[in-house]
Structures are given as C-alpha cells and as structure tokens.
Amino acid sequence: MKLDRIDIRILYELQKNGRITNVELAELVHLSPSPCLMRVKKLQQAGYITGYSAQVALAKLGPTITVFTEVTLKNHRKMDFDRFQQAAEKVEEIIECHLISGGYDYLLKFVTGSIGDYQAIMERLIDMDIGIDKYFSFVVMKSPFIKPHLPLKTMFPM
Amino acid sequence: MKLDRIDIRILYELQKNGRITNVELAELVHLSPSPCLMRVKKLQQAGYITGYSAQVALAKLGPTITVFTEVTLKNHRKMDFDRFQQAAEKVEEIIECHLISGGYDYLLKFVTGSIGDYQAIMERLIDMDIGIDKYFSFVVMKSPFIKPHLPLKTMFPM
DNA sequence: TCACTCACGGCATTTTATGCTGCAATCTCG
DNA sequence: CGAGATTGCAGCATAAAATGCCGTGAGTGA
C-alpha cells in the first residue's frame, strides 16, 4: 500500500484531532465522506494508524512526577535484553522504553505519584535481579511543552 | 470539580480508546449513554481531557530517527530559559521539552528523518545563539515499547 | 478507439449523539 | 425524624453521523 498526499493529510489531521467526525475530516482533505472514510479504514487496517487516545491532564488529578532513567545492564546477550524488557513492560509506571546509543543502555520514562514511588519501583526492579548494573535518574522539574503529534508536516510532502 | 471513580474509569477508557462510541463507553463504566456523555463533556470542559489524537506509525511512512538530547544553557536567568523554550517550541521536530534535575538542563525529544536532519537542526539551534552551552545526544536504536496511556490505574482508585 | 480499472460523489439505511422529561436516592435543614 | 431541595440517573425522541451501495468519470493499456 502506498500513501498519497491525501493520506498524509488525513494522518496529520487525525493526529491533531482524533475525534474529528468523518464529515469534517472529508472537508479538510477535500473529499466527500465516503472515500474519506474508506481511506481512514485502510490506514487503520494497514497499520498506519495504531489507535486513538485521549490526552489526559494527569497533573490535574493529583501530584505526579516524571523521571527519565538511564539504565545499564550487566550483560549484553539477547537473553539479558529480553528479560529486562519484559520486566519493564509489566511496570505500569514505565510508559516508554528506548534502547539507546551503542545498544548497551536503556532510557526509560516513568510517571509516578511521587519521588518516593519512583524510588520504590526502582528498588523493586533492582531486587528482582533482572540484570540491572547501574542507573541514573533525570527528574523532570517542569515540561514546558509536550506535543501530542509527530512532525508529519516537515517530514512528508503535503 | 471533583472526580469520582466513574470519572477516573472514563478517563482510563478514553486513554485506551479515544474513539470509542459513547454508547460503548457507557456500558464499560456502567452508565446509560446520557449521563456518560455529560461526564465526558464536563471532563473536557474542566480541562481533564486536553484533546484526542490518532497514534500514527511514523516508522511505516519512511525512515525515522528518535533522539533524546540533554542541553545545558550558558546562563540561567529566567530570560535565558524563556528564549530557549520559545525557540525549541518552534522546531517541529522537537516533540518534548523537559526541564530536568537542578533546573539547569533540558531534555529534548526529537523525531527526524535521519541523523543528518538531526545534526542540521542542532547546528541551526547552536548558530541561532539562544544560549546553548553544550549538548549530549542519546540516539534511539529501538523502542521496545511506548505506551500511549498514563498509569491512571495504579495512581488512582477505580 | 475501446474495454478495463480505480477512485470518487451522491443517496438510502443504520447507528450514534444529544437534548429533554420524569423518577429515585441522597442531603439538608427545620 | 421528616419534608423540601439537590443531584444524578434512565428512557425516549430527534438530529447528526457513519456506512454500504450504485452509478459516473478519469486514467491506462491493448
């Protein structure tokens, strides 16, 4: 499946507003509702759209802390990576897991209720003996901005 | 405005599926459609829900690189932070900006088409003279998982 | 030029959203 | 304790949207 400009525009608009009605979306991309809906369905089926989600202002619900953690593993066999990833994925508070640089380190993104919660989770991970050698924490004081959308506009022709 | 368990459940479900129909959502939270819709509207109006977006599999559209960059500023007056943030926000490829640790450093998240694009953007930022002292790049080789939802489940009673 | 394919627009039907009305539970203040 | 007020609910009716079907026109290759 190959995407044309209209598909890219659809992706762009759906990133900005995932709950736009098909009728409105069709107007924005200059199509009538039917073919527009057909394209959206195809984009979903082909995996270009993996889901939709509401952006929740977590901070309004109560105190929250975001922490980025750089983790180094003791060993670097495939088994070691797999074990660590599986353990990390099960932790609800770890919302992102990235393998960085030369492939020996992970960068994790945590969201927890407090620094105490974060420490408790990290201690639990250490005790679980999933191959963590050492880690370094970047505690987020403030997030001036977090854009909910990816730079489709600059990366692809529209 | 105070939220009860049902509101939290609504937020949770809308995070998992932002395009769920009101009828289905109502069933999941054990309400009839009317009061359910009323609550969603209130959550939006009160700012607990800041928007909806489609998750786009950017990697399927073409090659992409994600980079986390730690940036240190030369000076640390309010003016210096403001200038940097305003410049960073205008760069489409910078999708997150976090102020970390003691308040002197930023952690940025970039998404670009290639390492070359990333370098070009960084060089442009340096040349713009917005107070960047030095920076360190964490290039993402692979992202084992990125969860689209926040840990509402563990942080709040449901 | 003609047959074929593909994508579109328009229309009809089904599904969903949305506003209204009345009822039940809870709260409050005598 | 008890009566009125408040809050939040379900059910219903109407408006809006999604969805499937069909005919049409542009582009392609023989």
Task: Tell me what you see in this structure.
The structure is a homodimer of 158-residue chains. The first copy, chain A, is of the alpha+beta class and 158 residues long. Chain A has two domains: 5-53, Orthogonal Bundle (Arc Repressor Mutant, subunit A); 58-140, Alpha-Beta Plaits (2-Layer Sandwich), CATH 3.30.70. Chain A has helices at residues 5-16, 22-28, 33-45, 58-61, 78-90, 115-127, 152-155, and strands at 49-56, 65-73, 94-100, 105-112, 132-146. Chain A has a four-stranded antiparallel sheet with strand order 3-4-2-5, covered by helices on one side. The two termini of chain A are 18 Å apart. Strand 3 of chain A pairs antiparallel with strand 5 (132-146) of chain B, so a sheet runs across the interface. Chain A binds a DNA duplex (30 and 30 nucleotides) through helix 3. Chains A, B: It comes from Roseibium aggregatum (strain ATCC 25650 / DSM 13394 / JCM 20685 / NBRC 16684 / NCIMB 2208 / IAM 12614 / B1) (Stappia aggregata). Chains A, B: One of its GO terms (cellular component) is cytosol. Chains A, B: One of its GO terms (biological process) is regulation of DNA-templated transcription. Chains A, B: One of its GO terms (molecular function) is sequence-specific DNA binding. Chains A, B: Residues 3-64 form the HTH asnC-type domain.
